[in-house]
Amino acid sequence: MTVYKKRLIAAALGIAANIAYADTTLLNVSYDVTRELYKDIDAAFVADYRKKTGETVSVRQSHGASSAQALSVTQGLQADVVTMNQPNDIDLLAERGQLVPANWRSRLPDKSAPYTTTMVFLVHKGNPKQIKDWNDLARPGVQVVIANPKTSGNGRYAYLAAWGYKKQQGATDAAAQDFEKAIFRNVPVLDTGGRGATTTFTQRGIGDVLVTFENEVGLMSAGPGAKDFDAVYPSVSLLAEPPVSIVDKVVDKRGTRKEAQAYLDFLFTPAAQEIVAQHHLRPRDAAVLAKHAGEFRPLKTFTVEQMFGSWQKAQQAHFADGGTFDQVVADKN
Predict the structure, then answer these.
(1) Which residue from 38, 210, 54 is spatially nearest to 115, judged by alpha carbons?
(2) Which residues, 6 or more positions from 92, have their beta carbon under 8 angstroms from its beta carbon?
(3) pTM of the prediction?
(4) What are phi and psi of 161, to 5 degrees?
(5) pLDDT, tens digit, for every residue of 229-262?
(6) For the chain, which domains are there?
(7) SS3 at position 260
(8) Cβ count within 10 A of residue 300
(9) How far apart are CA 205 and CA 257, in angstroms?
(10) Which residues contact 110 (CB under 8 A, 6 or more apart)?
């Protein structure tokens, strides 16, 4: 046997040994605009877990519109954990197939939401249309880019934020719906997810204003395109508390509960909270938040529970078939 063949065999055996040694692989099914966040968190978790346990864990990521991702999990996508942008998408896992228990919110701190964000605006440099608040989105001649509330939690938050803004001004539900109609008449395209909406606005050059999560605006404002865009904070907005959960049926089937639980627990540690802040999301850890206080502007917010009673009520009234959003879009057409 030649030396070359010996080396090939040794290399093949080494690869096989490495594959056999890969202790556990987790799949994190997440929403559209968290690719960069979880890339950094995954690397930090893998290193931390190996240091603490001596075991090797790898984490794969899947990203897309939040509600579409949740539906994929109910249809068989083998997610060990889900990190969604609104509770309805995890409630869906409980309702369809009992993949998680109904009390999933109570299993981790802060209603299982390791960070918060809110809805703000991204406009072209200099803000040529002088867009300052939600009322400006309804003005004739203003093009608004918003993700589709039917498929995207990002779009849902935007819709509910606008509705809540109008209600806080004393509007009736009928007036709030008319306000939504005026806004969505200005929406040229409904992308299925938040990152698609960002691409439409920043790369395709469509629209005068993008309505999206604060962290997505922060990413654009701090990136290569910072010279082209400005962030605008409205007078009031909706507090987003993106939740996370183990997918119980999957981890018990795969034998990955211990690793999946460690992964979600890691999200609440100071190390992960620092990564959260660096990605323009508001950390839950008070010390980390204080450290980055200069980045996060004070903003008056309200919650879905305060304005709509619960996520379930908001979903049924606004986004179920025949709800207010369907009526808004029908009027647009």
Answers:
(1) 38
(2) 67, 70, 71, 74
(3) 0.87
(4) -65, -45
(5) 999 999 999 999 999 999 999 999 999 999 999 9
(6) 3-114+242-268 (3.40.190.10), 117-240+298-332 (3.40.190.10)
(7) helix
(8) 12
(9) 45
(10) 241, 268, 284
Q: Quickly tell me which residue has 């109910």 as its tokens.
A: 74
* pLDDT, position 29: 98
Flag the least confident range among 16-25, 263-272, 318-327: 16-25
159 token code pair: 């819709």
CA 205-238-295 angle, to 5 degrees, is 70
Give the H or E element holding residue 147.
none
Structure-token match 């690719």, residue found: 35
Place of tokens 């509007």: 171
Residues 6 or more apart in contact with residue 98 via CB below 8 angstroms: 249
The residues, any chain, with a CB within 8 Å of residue 79's CB and separated by 6 or more, are 27, 28, 29, 62, 73, 247, 250
